[in-house]
TrEMBL record:
NCBIfam families: 2am3keto_CoA, PRK06939.1. It holds the Pfam family Aminotran_1_2. Belongs to the class-II pyridoxal-phosphate-dependent aminotransferase family. GO terms for biological process: L-threonine catabolic process. One of its GO terms (cellular component) is mitochondrion. Residues 54-396 form the Aminotransferase class I/classII large domain. The lineage of its organism: Eukaryota, Metazoa, Chordata, Craniata, Vertebrata. Transmembrane segments: none annotated. This is 2-amino-3-ketobutyrate coenzyme A ligase, mitochondrial. Signal peptide: none annotated. GO terms for molecular function: glycine C-acetyltransferase activity; pyridoxal phosphate binding. Its cofactor is pyridoxal 5'-phosphate. It catalyses: glycine + acetyl-CoA = (2S)-2-amino-3-oxobutanoate + CoA. PROSITE patterns: AA_TRANSFER_CLASS_2.
Length: 407
């Protein structure tokens, strides 16, 4: 707020000029990320500042529609009343409540792993893990398109780094051969890659890891809750739950959507993370209302497999109708449905036109996706009705025709 700051001369004037120059580079590069302001709760129908009426939302990670589920909201309110707004403490000083332990147990049970440790976000879980697990004698083998938080977490650790081509098992094997002399090796991949909605070839990865004596880690942010028959994730979907050793995931997407992340895996690893993991040791505990919401989301999923299955048919409805209309949708069968357009400007213009038709979608361009591979990333939620999906398809056809993408 300019009322409160005076950008005076000297060092601060120089900093201001450097920053303004950097901002201008982003603007002229066409990669400026604006933020639309939502004035309602998260869900398939939202209100957006500057747009009139009800807007159909197709860009949240609210895969199961639990973000505003009445039971999830109620559990958050109950936890707020009973346990307060927050802990004003990290976990090991005076920031652990019974609800934190309970949620950790439920998440370990959900993923069928020995133990769980909560973080303020999955970004933190990824920032904390690798440095604790791997030292200079070890090696990490990472898919080149892994999420930014994995890349940052790996940067913080002292293990030797090997990067394999995206989902390329031959290249992974080459890297495994090259890293043979390391003490411990960890293969690291997103379970589902968020820009394309493509699923890592976990069976092949586990086969290779076993052949070469490596551990396997997956980031399940875009899988937990709805991939696999019981929503346990891509490891369940691909039949390798007992062969993937460590899973990181988020509470901020399908599991209620509030915030928070976690690691599940072998007990000694989780015990060591509690002793050494920096984002855990030096950051506040998850707030009780957030814990309450996530706990109810996990309870709902533990009680019934129906919720996990609720997004599949909707996803296929959108994918099939869009393909029939002549659009190219990347990935397969995942609720992340990237509508491939190629040109960055086209993606952004089409997204703006979609909003004028009452459908909120976002264009993704470089550097978030490779140059020439701009797209509109549509995300389907179980809370969308068939009519919502059909309306979105109609809006795509209308704007697609206007811009010459489909005939
Ligand atoms: N990992 C992946 C693959 C993600 O997509 C995200 C979120 O965008 C994260 C980690 C970070 O999760 P969180 O929002 O809980 O920090």
């Amino acid at each position: 707020n300019s009322d409160f700051f005076f950008w005076g001369g000297g060092a601060i004037a120089e900093a201001r000029s450097v920053l303004e120059h950097e901002l201008e580079t982003i603007r002229t590069g066409g990669t400026w990320k604006g933020e639309r302001i939502i004035t309602s709760k998260q869900g398939p129908h939202i209100n957006v500042d500057g747009s009139r009426g009800d807007i159909l939302n197709f860009c949240a990670n609210n895969y199961l529609g639990l973000s505003s589920h009445p039971q999830v909201v109620e559990a958050g309110i109950e936890a707020l009343k009973k346990y307060g707004a927050g802990l004003s403490s990290v976990r090991f000083i005076c920031g652990t409540q019974d609800i934190h332990k309970d949620l950790e147990q439920k998440l370990a049970k959900f993923h069928e792993r020995e133990e769980c440790i909560l973080y303020a976000s999955c970004f933190d879980a990824n920032a904390g893990l690798f440095e604790v697990l791997l030292g200079p004698d070890d090696a990490v083998l990472s898919d080149e398109l892994n999420h930014a938080s994995i890349i940052d977490g790996i940067r913080l650790c002292r293990a030797k780094r090997f990067r394999y081509k995206h989902m390329d098992l031959n290249d992974l094997e080459t890297q495994l051969k090259q890293s043979q002399s390391s003490r411990m090796r960890l293969v690291v991949t997103d379970g589902v890659f968020s820009m394309d909605g493509d699923v890592a070839p976990l069976k092949g990865i586990c086969d290779l890891a076993e052949q070469y004596g490596a551990l396997v880690f997956i980031d399940e942010c875009h899988a937990t809750g709805f991939m696999g028959p019981r929503g346990r994730g891509t490891d369940e979907l691909l039949g390798v739950m007992d062969r993937v050793h460590i899973v990181n995931s988020t509470l901020g997407k399908a599991l209620g959507g509030a915030a928070g992340g976690y690691t599940v895996g072998p007990k000694p690893l989780i015990d060591l993370l509690r002793q050494r993991s920096r984002p855990y040791l030096f950051s506040n505990s998850l707030p009780p209302p957030v814990v309450g919401c996530a706990t109810r989301a996990v309870e709902l999923l533990l009680a019934s497999n129906e919720i996990a299955q609720s997004v599949g048919a909707k996803t296929m409805r959108f994918r099939n109708k869009m393909t029939e209309a002549g659009f190219t949708i990347s990935g397969s069968a995942h609720p992340i449905c990237p509508v491939m357009l190629g040109d960055a400007r086209l993606a952004s213009l089409m997204a703006d036109d979609m909003l004028k038709l009452g459908v909120y979608v976002i264009g993704f361009s470089y550097p978030v996706v490779p140059k020439g591979k701009a797209r509109i990333r549509v995300q389907i939620s179980a809370a969308h009705t068939d009519q919502d999906i059909d309306r979105a398809v109609d809006a795509f056809i209308q704007t697609g025709r206007k811009h010459g993408v489909v005939s």
